[in-house]
Amino acid sequence: MAITDCCKLTAVVCLVLALAVTALLRSQEARIPSDSRIDYFPEKGWLRETAQWDGEHGRFLVSRIEGGIGAVPYSPQSGPVREHTLVSRSIEPPFAGLSTNGLKIDPPRHRVLAAIADLVNNKCSAVAAYDIRNWEQIFFLKLAGPERASLADDVTVDEEGNIYVTDALGALIWKVAPDGSSFDVLTERGAFAVVPKIGYLSFATLNGISYHPEGFLLVVHTSGECLFKVSLDGQSVERIEFEGSLYGDGIALVSPTQLAVAGLWTGVKLVESSDMWVSANITHVYATPRHRVATSVTVKDGDVFVNYLIGQGYPYYSTIGRAAFTPVSS
Known about the structure:
By secondary structure, this protein is mainly β. It has one helix at 3-29, and strands at 38-41, 48-54, 59-64, 69-73, 81-82, 84-87, 99-106, 111-117, 125-131, 137-144, 152-157, 163-167, 172-176, 183-185, 206-212, 216-221, 226-231, 237-239, 241-243, 251-255, 258-262, 268-272, 279-286, 294-300, 303-308, 318-322, 326-327. It has two domains: 1-30; 34-327, 6 Propeller (Neuraminidase), CATH 2.120.10.30. The strands form six sheets. Strands 19, 20, 21, 22, 23 and 27 form a six-stranded mixed β-sheet that branches. The protein has a five-stranded mixed β-sheet with strand order 5-1-26-25-24, with no helix packed on it. Strands 2-3-4-6 form a four-stranded antiparallel β-sheet, with no helix packed on it. Mean pLDDT is 90; it is low at 19-23. Residues 1-30 form the signal peptide. InterPro entries: 6-blade_b-propeller_TolB-like, Sensory_adhesion_molecule.
């Protein structure tokens, strides 16, 4: 075969592959409802770990793997919008090289809480609070240092202002005083010991965490694919009776009986309990675009919105979109 013929064949194969990939991506993207998706150009960095709906200001707050916090206005069907920086990435201590992971808005205290960590070397975990009115830092509290590997992953807050942060590597929960002046390890070592079901994610333990208004915590174990119910004093840690597969990352309480769980590339699941979270089951699922990676969920006016870690396109844009759930057949 002549060289020219080989070149022509190669060009045709590449064209066919490109068309196939484009068709696949379009079919995956069609899973995000067009009437409520928000495409936006990230201002700094490429990866977004968490999105939280800020109803008071009509925007989503997003955390940056590269460090910092941004704001995305809610304007579906208006074309891509631009993210605005609220907290910049810093190259100065104590923030140098740290990622911003979980976010939680604390409306009664007009603040935003952030789980912050050394994502690469796992030599530092911390929690920070910012005034949502002017974005001044209220406090920064170091939770763990180079003495052991740790990863502050997600954060929630109870009605008294106590803050709870998950350690995705240490399988523990830190409880932080409302003013950020001190902290304790809430749970005993080994309280969340489970056999990992996902071998390649065995390092990932506790992940998403949510405060329940009845006075306890719900937390997901990623590699164990299970949920736990934890008392606010840490004395009771109960594994919730559950059937199904979660691959859980970020979680959000939709109602006292419903919990939305982001499942990375496996989609989002709606988990329901009728016995105050002694047991639960999956009632609805949402098949997200696999190439996007769903890392967190938040609730806006009763609807669940999904944050996607990875964007796409040229110019590059990120996306937040409503979850289009379908019931699980009995």
